[in-house]
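Tutorial sheet, problem 5. The three components below are modelled jointly, 629 residues in total.
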Amino acid sequence: MSVIAGDDVHAIAEEVFAAMVDGEPGTVVPWDGPAPTWAQPLVAWVDLHGAWSGRACLATELPTAHALARALLTLPADEEVGEADLVDAFGEMANVVGGNIKSLLPVAGTLGLPQVAPEAPAAPGSRVVTEVALAWHGRPLVLTVLTVPGAP
Amino acid sequence: MRALVIDDSRTMRSIVSRTLQPLGFETVEAEHGRAALDVLEGGPLPDLACIDWNMPVMDGLTFVTEVRANPAWRSMTLMMVTTESEHGQIVRALAAGAHEYLIKPFTADAIRDKLDLLGLLPVGEPA
Amino acid sequence: MTISQQTFAFVADHVRRHSAIQLEPGKEYLVESRLLPLARAAGVADVDAYVTALRSTPHHAALGDVVEALTTNETSWFRDVTPFDALREHVLPTLRAAPGGLGRLRVWSAACSTGQEPYSVAMVVEDAAPGLPLEITATDLSEQVLARARSGAYTQLEVNRGLPAPLLVRHFRRAGSHWQVADELRRRIRFQRHNLLDAPPPGGPFDVVFLRNVLIYFDLPTKRAVLERVRTALRPGGWLVLGAAESTIGVHDGYERVPVGRGALYRSAGGAAPVQRPAAAPAASRPAVPAPVVPAPVVPAGAARFGAVPVGTQAVGAAAPARPFLPSTTGALPRAGTGTPVPTRGAGAR
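Model answer (structure tokens):
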């Protein structure tokens, strides 16, 4: 069931970056080019449980995740971001995106706590509902919404 | 004025705190509802609590219910600050006793607007 | 892909001259993302080409769109709650207490932008005087913002800006990533394009005109001309609501300044019953305003301003005590930033 429109997911991403990361709109635009591939990927995701179960994933390059964490924590450009801060900040972005995606669903559900890893664990039977590639100040990010049928 | 900032993400706690501090708030942070109740039991009552919904140990809705069950804590203003954004969830939080509801993501201006509505903006702050 | 320095310099200069808004170097992405939709609508591949075309035609009509695209920001609903408190606590009671009462309220929301002001007025009147017939005329110079206002669809970021949560759940429903204003509110408002220097729009004479944060952009003769047109659109004794930094004093003597709450309102002189001095809130004379219902018997000052939780929740308790005209908590406040360091609990393991 395709209840989640790509336009809505894009709108959510724009709002999250405008409000949380940059403090002004317009910093995220559609990725213009071939589908991004990662050299050092980092993925943050939250699982959605309920009558509709699935997952919202935010993937990018490690240095971009560092830059995002620095922006969220208002750290200077040259300051190293610790592992715990990186995981917390990038995970919170997935959490906010995931919660807003949950609100697009016609059925009530609950949100899991965010997780962060170089790649999300395989979810058997999952299917991509929407995938949106974005450029944040020219750096690629991919936001993916999956259905995971029968997930707990 | 004192604000209690309750969120399991320290990134989010820091975003909320650094918005509140220039508006005249001294902030205390807690990473879940249970820890926040400990803060209330152990010290002076904050004027404002900013409350995430989804947290381990004790979620924000349970925290609001606990606070509203204690008459000694009634003068504290409760504002949910959460990514839960369905119409029905907002209704649930208000029915449980939350006074305001701010949806993540939010801007610093959005927090100021809510404080203005709640009468918690310091005198001299341009509305 | 980014825009050229020449494009950025031209746009920044143009916007500064027409809006006083500075686009500092580093905002190239903002210019690009805001102008890209205009470029595409014009059938041009990118922003550089679009701006080059504008530059080659002096006084190009689309230059106004460029300024608008770069200066439009989300506006608040009840931010600066003072005028809405004044409407609820002073204007409505005064109009209803006048001889003949108030059979119908006509409001003009001038320069209404994306519509937050007229919808806020409708929500306040609905709450304070349920059943009172209400006709709001909402105008703006820009068809672009009027189209958005008419649609009644707002983003999450927009509803976060000063819209009380009880009013959000009462008057809006989710529609995808947006929130949609209820049709009951929309049908009370007629949106139409209008230039403040032209004759007033139909729909008057008005009991109340909202004209906030517009006069500040005009020179003195223009301010005077606009205030004169507004005066002719107001019924005698009708109320003008200006922005906090604006006044009719020294500009137009057809209004009386009436201090209300933290601010002031302006009452159209001429033909009205003697102006009531509002030094005290009109507690004794004002008709009963429904007491807000709140989730629990005691609420912090100000928290109950917008009243009830939605229907269908069982936690509705006793009526709140009468709210002070001004939130009492805005008194003396301790300064922050002193004293103990902030204890942060736990190391954040999730």
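Marking note: The longest helix of chain A spans residues 83-102. Full credit if you identified this.
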